[in-house]
């Protein structure tokens, strides 16, 4: 081909979908993975969790079906839907119900997802799928059947040119290559992926996820927002809506080295307190004081007991456990390359604090083991390094964009011809993109 | 639900669709929705979004994005010098064809004051200075839309040329009666061909009483071809039912006579290539309707493929529904009083006495 079309990179997450073209440094579209369809809201349908399917055309039901305007007679309901932000606003009005086709990272409703994809390709990205290669993402531990379903849709509905499905954690590792701290472009490391709903700690060894050691933490962005909100309420601030709490979280919060000392600093230095101005819908402005929540909110990762009573393990300890349960020969690599990804890892000094705490735990364990063994000289020690970088907000998407612009990307994809030759099971295996043997 | 715009190109087919309906009528039936609902936009949404955001007065930031559009068109939006000057470039596969039919003039007319030195590797560039925007909000929105329509405007050139030619020929033809008109006037102008995709092209021909637009289409997929046929067949019904003043549409597998001169014997009925002909009558050729008609006809292919894919998605959802129903039947068929061996605490088994 004389000129190559850029590959399309789509990262469909539980909350938001990130869509764009390979080679760009940020996704072109970020919108909720939501679809608004005519008829009842989520959970409706035929009991099995499926949406109601459009009626048969009236002439097939013997004319008993609803007559009236052409659209209803001809079964046009299936095109009457919105996705993304439009879906959210359409669902606010009458007639439309909002659905989220992805739950816990995995696609639950394929009918909705197929239409979501079709609309995002044609209406938003404006590409003819037959001309482009696609890079999609999946969560770790996605069942292979889901991959097959995805491939069926992309090859049979969209006739896409080529398809690659990558694991989000691996892409997040690839995204960290832009950081100056990452020297060797390795695909071994621990990914801390903290989005809105849940935080995962995922060990990856040479591009493959060590599934048995993955741990999830039920504390993520939404919890921080709730926590900020509860602090605002306790103080009786004039505005304590979720939106305000979220704004404060995003613009004021940071991670402190030691929460107890930080309280002292605030008490001595009143300039650390800030004000947040909220404009109410009427145009009236209220000022909300911002105090200890600036450092207390992200602190719930490190001292979860201040927020939750059921989950009490701090994040550094979870990371340490994850690495300790991984195979012994990759542990050094996992400690050395701890990569952050997702919006809830963006707090200032988050990486530094995490690195310090993990390092402390590792050193302590080594010290004890030396004592038990009776060795006095200290060994080489373990290198603990947490990598944070500019693109970590949309880490998996950026990693996908980075990898899919490489010239050899196309040879890693499965093509339509291969799909037809072997069937959907072909997508159970992909050659490792960006791994050894690659660039 | 966008209603109106679709009607400008609800066409009639001549019954040149060979063969009987291959798929059961159920597939045919819901194709009409395509005509009623969901047209694609003409502008590039992404460019529109980016510019709208930049124009809204947020602090300037650097942008560097490559954006793709249908038919292999590539945009590059960047801020090469300062953050307040946005460079927008477009690359079109068939730009050379378009230039031949006056694309440069059309683009100069539309973007004259913004046009700038073309970025290397691209075909046309505009430079937008954020410090010299119109004050009025509506004007800004109009400007955003204008830039987002860059592809549409570039592609519009041959159609505009055809319109102009049609007016000229009409003028000339009005001097003669139909018998004595000279050959050149009756037959109309040259066929303009735009090779907008690798294997597909648009042909435009103007004559004194109509403008003919022919799309050559290639389907790589057998199923798509069937869908495409059914889809066009549905246009017939649409015209019969409601909309009589739509342009005429013909579909055939061998090149229409208009193209014989250009294609020669090259593509005679190989089966893969189909030709969709739109005949625009004077009703569609008024200067007032020109912009709309051009926009519609340009998106024909994308629209066509979009709806083929949407139709497949619809079939898939029905298939999934049916599978779920069958599974439910199977589940119900399972006997629910299965004899189970039970064990006592010590490990001996026993049967439940009824």
From TrEMBL, chain A:
Residues 362-371 have a biased composition (Basic and acidic residues). SUPFAM superfamilies: Actin-like ATPase domain. Residues 40-68, 362-382 are annotated as: Disordered. It is found in: Cytoplasm, Cytoskeleton. InterPro entries: Actin (IPR004000), Actin/actin-like_CS (IPR020902), ATPase_NBD (IPR043129). Signal peptide: none annotated. It comes from the Eukaryota. GO terms for molecular function: actin binding; ATP binding. The keyword Cytoplasm applies. Belongs to the actin family. ARP3 subfamily. This is Actin-related protein 3. It comes from Zalerion maritima.
UniProtKB/TrEMBL annotation, chain B:
It is found in: Cytoplasm, Cytoskeleton. Gene3D superfamilies: 3.30.1460.20. Its main location: cytoplasm. Keywords: Actin-binding, Cytoplasm, Cytoskeleton. It holds the Pfam family P34-Arc. Residues 335-354 are annotated as: Disordered. InterPro entries: ARPC2 (IPR007188), ARPC2/4 (IPR034666). GO terms for cellular component: Arp2/3 protein complex. GO terms for molecular function: actin filament binding; structural constituent of cytoskeleton. The keyword Cytoplasm applies. Residues 335-344 have a biased composition (Basic and acidic residues). The keyword Lyase does not apply. One of its GO terms (biological process) is actin filament polymerization. SUPFAM superfamilies: Arp2/3 complex subunits. It comes from the Eukaryota. Component of the Arp2/3 complex. Belongs to the ARPC2 family. Functions as actin-binding component of the Arp2/3 complex which is involved in regulation of actin polymerization and together with an activating nucleation-promoting factor (NPF) mediates the formation of branched actin networks. This is Arp2/3 complex 34 kDa subunit.
């Amino acid at each position: 081909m004389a000129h190559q079309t850029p590959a399309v990179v789509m990262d469909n997450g539980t909350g938001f979908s990130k869509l764009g073209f390979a080679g760009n440094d940020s996704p072109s579209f970020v919108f909720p993975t939501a679809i608004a369809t005519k008829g009842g809201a989520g959970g409706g349908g035929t009991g099995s969790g499926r949406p109601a399917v459009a009626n048969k055309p009236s002439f097939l039901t013997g004319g008993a079906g609803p007559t009236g305007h052409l659209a209803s007679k001809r079964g046009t309901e299936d095109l009457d839907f919105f996705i993304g932000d439009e879906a959210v606003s359409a669902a606010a009005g009458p007639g439309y119900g909002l659905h989220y086709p992805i739950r816990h990272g995995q696609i639950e409703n394929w009918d909705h997802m197929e239409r979501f994809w079709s609309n995002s390709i044609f209406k938003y990205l404006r590409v003819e799928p037959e001309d482009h290669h696609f890079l999609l993402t999946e969560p770790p531990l996605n069942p292979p059947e889901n991959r097959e379903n995805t491939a069926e849709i992309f090859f049979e509905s969209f006739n896409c040119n080529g398809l690659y499905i990558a694991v989000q954690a691996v892409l997040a590792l690839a995204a960290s290559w832009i950081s100056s701290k990452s020297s060797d472009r390795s695909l071994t490391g621990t990914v801390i992926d903290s989005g809105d709903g849940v935080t995962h700690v995922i060990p990856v060894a040479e591009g493959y996820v060590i599934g048995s050691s993955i741990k999830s933490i039920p504390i993520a962005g939404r919890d921080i927002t709730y926590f900020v909100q509860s602090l605002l309420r306790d103080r009786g601030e004039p505005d304590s809506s979720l939106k305000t709490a979220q704004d404060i979280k995003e613009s004021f919060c940071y991670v402190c080295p030691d929460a107890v000392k930080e309280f002292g600093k605030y008490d001595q230095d009143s300039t650390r307190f800030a004000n947040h101005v909220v404009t109410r819908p009427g145009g009236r402005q209220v000022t909300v004081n911002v105090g200890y929540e600036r450092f207390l909110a992200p602190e719930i990762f490190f001292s979860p007991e201040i927020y939750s009573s059921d989950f009490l393990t701090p994040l550094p300890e979870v990371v340490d456990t994850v690495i300790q349960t991984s195979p012994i020969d990759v542990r050094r690599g996992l400690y050395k390359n701890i990569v952050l990804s997702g919006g809830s890892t963006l707090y200032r000094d988050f990486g530094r604090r995490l690195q310090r705490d993990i390092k402390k735990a590792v050193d302590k364990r080594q010290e004890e083991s030396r004592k038990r063994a009776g060795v006095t000289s200290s060994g080489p020690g373990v290198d603990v390094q947490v990598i944070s970088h500019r693109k970590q907000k949309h880490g998996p998407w950026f990693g996908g964009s980075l990898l899919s612009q490489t010239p050899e990307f196309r040879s890693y994809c499965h093509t339509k011809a291969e799909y037809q030759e072997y069937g959907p099971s072909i997508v159970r295996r992909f050659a490792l993109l960006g791994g050894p043997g690659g660039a | 639900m966008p209603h109106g715009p679709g009607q400008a190109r609800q066409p009639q087919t001549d019954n040149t669709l060979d063969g009987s309906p291959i798929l059961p009528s159920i597939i045919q039936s819901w194709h009409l929705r395509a005509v009623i609902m969901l047209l694609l936009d003409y502008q590039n949404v992404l460019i529109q979004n980016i510019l709208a955001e930049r124009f809204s007065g947020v602090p300037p930031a650097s942008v560097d994005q490559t954006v793709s559009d249908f038919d292999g068109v590539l945009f590059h939006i960047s801020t090469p010098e300062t953050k307040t000057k946005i460079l927008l470039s477009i690359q079109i596969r068939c730009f050379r064809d378009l230039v031949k039919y006056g694309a440069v003039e059309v683009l100069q007319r539309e973007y004259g004051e913004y046009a700038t030195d073309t970025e290397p590797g691209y075909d046309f560039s505009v430079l937008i200075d954020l410090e010299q925007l119109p004050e009025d909000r509506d004007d800004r929105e109009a400007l955003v839309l204008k830039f987002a329509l860059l592809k549409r405007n570039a592609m519009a050139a041959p159609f505009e040329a055809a319109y102009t030619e049609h007016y000229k020929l009409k003028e000339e033809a009005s001097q003669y009666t139909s018998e004595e008109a000279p050959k050149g006037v009756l037959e109309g102008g040259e066929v303009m061909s735009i090779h907008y995709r690798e294997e597909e092209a648009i042909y435009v021909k103007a004559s004194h009483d109509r403008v003919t637009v022919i799309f050559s289409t290639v389907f790589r997929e057998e199923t798509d071809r069937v869908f495409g046929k059914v889809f066009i067949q549905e246009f017939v019904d649409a015209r019969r039912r409601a909309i009589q003043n739509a342009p005429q549409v013909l579909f055939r597998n061998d090149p229409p006579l208009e193209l014989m001169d250009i294609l020669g014997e090259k593509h005679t009925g190989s089966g893969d290539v189909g030709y969709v002909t739109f005949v625009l009558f004077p009703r569609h050729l008024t200067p007032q309707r020109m912009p709309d008609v051009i926009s519609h006809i340009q998106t024909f292919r994308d629209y066509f493929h979009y709806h083929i894919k949407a139709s497949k998605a619809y079939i898939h959802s029905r298939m999934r529904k049916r599978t779920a129903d069958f599974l439910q039947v199977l589940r119900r068929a399972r006997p629910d009083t299965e004899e189970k061996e039970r064990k006592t605490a010590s490990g001996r088994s026993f049967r439940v006495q009824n």
